[in-house]
User: Fold this.
Amino acid sequence: MSATASTIVARLAGIAGDAYVIADPAGLDAYAIGGIRPAAAIRPGSPAEISELIKFAVAEKLSVVPCGARTKIEMGLPPRKYDLAIDITRMDRVIAYDPGDLTLSVEPGIPLKKLSAVLAEQGQFLPLSVPFFQLATLGGTIASAVDSPLRQFYGTPRDFVLGMEFVTGDGTLAKSGGRVVKNVTGYDLHKLMIGAFGTLGVIAKINFRTFPLPRDARGFVATFRSAGAALDLRARLARSPLRPLTLDILSPGVSPIFYSDAAARIDPNPLPPGLLSPELWAFTCGFAGTEKVLARCETEVRAMAAPSGAVSISILSDRQVHAAFARKREFVPIALASSPAAVVLKVGVLPSKMNDALKEVEAAANSESLRWAALARGVGVIYVALLPDAQSDETRMRVSRASTRIQDACEKAGGQATIPWCPIDWKAGLKVWGTERGDLPLMRKLKSVFDPQGILSPGRFVGGL
Assistant:
């Protein structure tokens, strides 16, 4: 660093106050990424303070990583350089909320659980039921672009984020979009922040469109002897007028981990016994509405399941739906807790290619004698968990061969596969961000515009951005 540690701490304290600067090694351990610990962490209380922090970092040539509750901080690659952690958890206010207009403006540090309670008082919600829900913050959820089972019906944050304020890599406080739908004009620059891992800017405020809370829910689970049969039901449902809130297909390997003690620790609501089988694939979907609507959905899905070859059919009550939904939402943390060296791939293919992708996953895992589980969303996103029983060099090589085979097959099918979660010391030998993308030169140009000095989360994102 060009400034001494004591000078840095004093300057940070001058920006946000002594109480919001962390400089002791024990406190900084919580901000480590890939074993790399920052020199200091600071908790700003306003967009203006974030701007001042970035300007100071530019002047002193310090690298910055924004973070929240740090539930997903190990996603992506470790930073090339890591001097300051900007912890936005102090910025946790609801700035403006108009239930009548279904609009919300909120700071990024608010916990998802807290925001959910605020919206529920008005019978509304945001479809951000993502992994690590009990602890995650809004800003980290948006910056990492982790999705939810609800994307089947509501889409992703790109579909309901109306606008944003963010601080760029030169300290400029920028605005994009608006607070209400009719004011959203011009370039949607804020959408570049979604999934950028803090490499383009530090999110300071987010505007959303909110949604009415769904009414009584009902779940549907059908088991099949193959992924192809379960996907046949998905195709039949897609051609029907029914619009499920969730639609996920679970491999046989999901059953053991969803009924495990690790799953119960993450979410204590128990799954109905016998709902899933370690020998069968499971098609799961959920609907919401009046009793008449739910009865129609049940009748029509039952009628579609039989010709697809369903082995069994189960209907879940409203209470059971919530327990099953929580397990699907927390698939990633449950998988990570189910192996000493879990590796989770995120595979994206066209829905028509999902069966081929799942066959390749099964072949790759079995060829390396790896336990595995997969959760496939109806829209074509598949989360694959490779669950080795040990963390050793020999295991790492088997995982590397299996994951590379899956990624290569996905690329040939016109899709993409990344590795959002894996052991820290395995990242250098795995293709964390998949095969180099054709739009990487454009991404580099954007990085140079938004972060000309390269101080924001350097090296964390695609292509070392």
In short: The domain at 1-213 is CATH 3.30.465.10 (Uridine Diphospho-n-acetylenolpyruvylglucosamine Reductase; domain 3). The mean pLDDT is 93. The longest strand covers residues 202-209. The longest helix spans residues 393-412.
